[in-house]
Write a structure and sequence with these properties.
- The radius of gyration is 22 Å and the shape is globular.
- The chain has helices at about 1-5, 80-90, 135, 205-220, 270-285, 295-310, 315-325, 330-335, 340-350, 355-370, and strands at about 15-20, 30-35, 45-50, 50-55, 60-65, 70-75, 95-100, 105, 110-115, 120-125, 125-130, 145-155, 165-170, 180-190, 190-200, 225-240, 250.
- Helix content is about 30%, strand content about 30%.
- The protein is built from 10 helices and 17 strands.
- The protein is an alpha+beta fold.
- The model is unreliable at about 370-375 (pLDDT under 50).
- The strands form 5 sheets. It has a 7-stranded mixed sheet with strand order 5-4-13-14-15-12-16, sandwiched between helices. The protein has a 3-stranded antiparallel sheet with strand order 2-6-3. A 3-stranded antiparallel sheet has the order 8-9-10, with no helix packed on it.
């Protein structure tokens, strides 16, 4: 995405670009979804979009239908994305694509060295999407969960899906002490991507994800079905300041740069916005953007993750109250970091007293940790 944005900017189109990927990027290895009203003009690779959505509450035992007024919820299969963007990049005379493993990245005073098994490359500026897991092993002050899921593309015998609506979260399933929900993207009446998703610290055995999806298909009365593809992935949910690992010439992007929204894991929409901001900075010689989100949104996310770290089964309660007591479109904007302070205060005020206590307790514990951090015990 960033490389494509750079070559499309006339002022930067003469820059030499080397893209190093450890794989060829030809298969459908993931699905990206995002909601937006403007900004993404590559409509030919949007495999499906929805203007209607639903949220299924466990606590209130109801289904909340909503319309994405002026917005669309869009789905992109990575296979289509790779095919179009890679072709456009390779058609540019100043772009080179290298399939190789990166073994080391070292920033120097006037350049950055990128090592591969066969050669060391040097550049004035490097953007890296490689997550350094040693950072995640030393979180300490920052909460950390995984959003992990297994998704099945299924084709059913019966027309059991409403292909005009996407299911953002269905919490009607058994929580089993964790935050668990179904995420359903219907392609047509007989085909859908169904994901069994958790917010927790550890993966489940594969058979538990499969059982969850099988139970959901039985619930919607799918009849016999065929599993066309399987996706499996995990996204770190943390407010760890990845941007502090950036240098003057080495910038981390994507999940490695903290671009994934800590409370939801959504990354694609922020990648769109930050890619444009980076191009503008390069064009006019301005400092590159560092923080992907405003401090107050990181604070909200940190309090949520603090609650879920201690009481992971409370996730459905928090999301139920968000969608039950507020306009769902405002909630989606809030989860994207696009609301105003006044809107956010109204959202926070809408929680029940018991739920507010969860956040106040997390805030108190956070204050204590700040006060005692680095002090002798």
């Amino acid at each position: 995405m960033l490389g494509r944005s750079i070559i499309r900017e006339k002022a930067l189109s003469q820059k030499g670009i080397l893209i190093i990927e450890k794989e060829e990027k030809t298969k459908n290895d993931r699905t990206w979804c995002f909601w937006e009203n403007v900004g993404f003009d590559d409509h030919d690779i949007v495999s499906k979009k929805w203007n209607l959505g639903l949220y299924v509450s466990k606590q209130f035992q109801k289904t909340i239908n909503f319309r994405l007024e002026g917005y669309s919820y869009k789905m992109i299969r990575s296979e289509d994305f790779y095919q179009k963007f890679k072709a456009e990049l390779l058609d540019h005379p100043n772009v080179r694509w290298l399939t190789s493993q990166v073994t080391q990245i070292k920033e120097k005073s006037t350049s950055v060295e990128v090592s591969t098994p066969k050669k060391v490359y040097s550049s004035e500026l490097v953007f890296s999407s490689i997550v350094n897991h040693t950072y995640l092993d030393n979180l300490k002050k920052h909460p950390f969960l995984l959003q992990h899921f297994v998704g099945w593309y299924v084709k059913t015998e019966k027309a059991c899906f409403d292909d005009q609506k996407m299911t953002f979260m269905d919490f009607s399933i058994n929580q089993k002490g964790h935050t668990r929900f179904m995420y359903v993207l219907p392609i047509n009446r007989k085909k859908a991507l169904i994901e069994y998703t958790l917010f927790s610290k550890e993966w489940l055995p594969d058979k538990q994800y499969a059982k969850g999806i099988e139970q959901y298909l039985a619930k919607v009365n799918s009849g016999p079905y065929q599993v066309l593809e399987i996706e499996k992935n995990a996204i770190p949910m943390t407010t760890f300041p990845f941007h502090k690992n950036n240098g003057k010439r080495l910038i981390h992007i994507g999940v490695a740069g903290g671009w994934a929204k800590p409370s939801t894991g959504f990354t694609f929409y922020r990648t769109l916005k930050l890619s444009k901001m980076i191009v503008e900075s390069l064009k006019f010689g301005k400092p590159l953007p560092q923080k992907p989100y405003h401090n107050r949104f990181l604070f909200y996310d940190k309090m949520l993750l603090k609650v879920l770290e201690k009481q992971n089964d409370k996730g459905h309660i928090i999301f139920d109250e968000l969608f039950q007591k507020n306009n769902p479109l405002i909630i989606l904007k809030f989860l994207s970091g696009d609301t105003t302070l006044i809107q956010e205060l109204k959202i926070l005020a809408s929680f029940r007293f018991k739920t507010k206590v969860l956040f106040l307790r997390a805030l108190w514990n956070e204050s204590l940790s700040i006060f005692t951090f680095g002090q002798p015990q």
